[in-house]
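Need a sequence for this fold. Nothing fancy.
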C-alpha cells in the first residue's frame, strides 16, 4: 500500500487551482498527492492544445483558463475536479497510459455506484452526448471514458514530464448551459456537492487503488510556487494563444 497526501481546496480561484497543480507536478521532493477541488467563480478550462476560437463556449464563460493537460474544454461548475500528481514510477502509473486511465476510472466507478449509478467504460459505443464542433470535453469521448445513461460523465487528461505525472479529472455532479445533455450525478442524488461526494471518492481511491490517504496541505514552497505560476493560466495572451 502506497501512502499519498490528500489536499482539498474548495471554491478556490482559477489561477490558484492551475498554479498549484503545476507546482505539485514540478515538486520532485513532494509526496504523491491526490487533490479534490472546486472553482470560484465557475470557470471554463481549455485543453493545452486547443485554440480559443475553436471553442464557442469560451466566448460565453465568465472566467477562462488554459490547463497544462490536453483534451477538451471543461466548464468547472457543479462538478468535482481531482488531480493525481506523483512520480511516474508509482505503481498506479505502471504499464501503459491507457491502463492508468482504466485503473483511475474503475475506482471512480465504485464511488458512483454508491449513488445508484451504473457507470461503464465507453468502449466502442456511440454516445448521445456526442456533439461536433464544440471543443467541449464532455461532447467527445474515447473508449476509456466513464459513461452512464449513454452519456459521458467523467473526463480525464494527463501531462507527463521529467519523470512526473499530472492526471486531471472532472466528475459532473450537474450540467450547465455550456455543456447541456451530458451524464450527471444529480439525476440519482439531488443536492450533491463536491464536499459531500468527496468522502465516497476518497474511500474508493483507497480501496481500489491501494492508497493510504493522509490529509495534508501544500507546503510553503508549493504555495509560493503556485502563487508565482498561477497568473500565467489566466493571462489573456496564454488563454487565447493559437
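Here you go.
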Amino acid at each position: 500500500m502506497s501512502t499519498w497526501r490528500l489536499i482539498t481546496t474548495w471554491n478556490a480561484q482559477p489561477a490558484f487551482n492551475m498554479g498549484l497543480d503545476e507546482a505539485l507536478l514540478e515538486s520532485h521532493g513532494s509526496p504523491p498527492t491526490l487533490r479534490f477541488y472546486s472553482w470560484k467563480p465557475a470557470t471554463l478550462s481549455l485543453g493545452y492544445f486547443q485554440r480559443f476560437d475553436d471553442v464557442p463556449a469560451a466566448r460565453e464563460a465568465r472566467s477562462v483558463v488554459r490547463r497544462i493537460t490536453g483534451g477538451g474544454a471543461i466548464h468547472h461548475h457543479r462538478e468535482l475536479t481531482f488531480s493525481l500528481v506523483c512520480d511516474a514510477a508509482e505503481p498506479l502509473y505502471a504499464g501503459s497510459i491507457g491502463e492508468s486511465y482504466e485503473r483511475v476510472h474503475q475506482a471512480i466507478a465504485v464511488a458512483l455506484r454508491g449513488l445508484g449509478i451504473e457507470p461503464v467504460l465507453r468502449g466502442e459505443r456511440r454516445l448521445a452526448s456526442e456533439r461536433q464542433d464544440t471543443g467541449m470535453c464532455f461532447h467527445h469521448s474515447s473508449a476509456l471514458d466513464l459513461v452512464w445513461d449513454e452519456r459521458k460523465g467523467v473526463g480525464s487528461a494527463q501531462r507527463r514530464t521529467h519523470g512526473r505525472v499530472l492526471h486531471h479529472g472532472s466528475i459532473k455532479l450537474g450540467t450547465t448551459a455550456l455543456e447541456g445533455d451530458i451524464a450527471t450525478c444529480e439525476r440519482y442524488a439531488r443536492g450533491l456537492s463536491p464536499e459531500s461526494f468527496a468522502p465516497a471518492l476518497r474511500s474508493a481511491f483507497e480501496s481500489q487503488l491501494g492508497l493510504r490517504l493522509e490529509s495534508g496541505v501544500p507546503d510553503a514552497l508549493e504555495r509560493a510556487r503556485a502563487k508565482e505560476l498561477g497568473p500565467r493560466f489566466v493571462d489573456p495572451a496564454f488563454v487565447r494563444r493559437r
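For context: The first strand starts at residue 2 and ends at 12.
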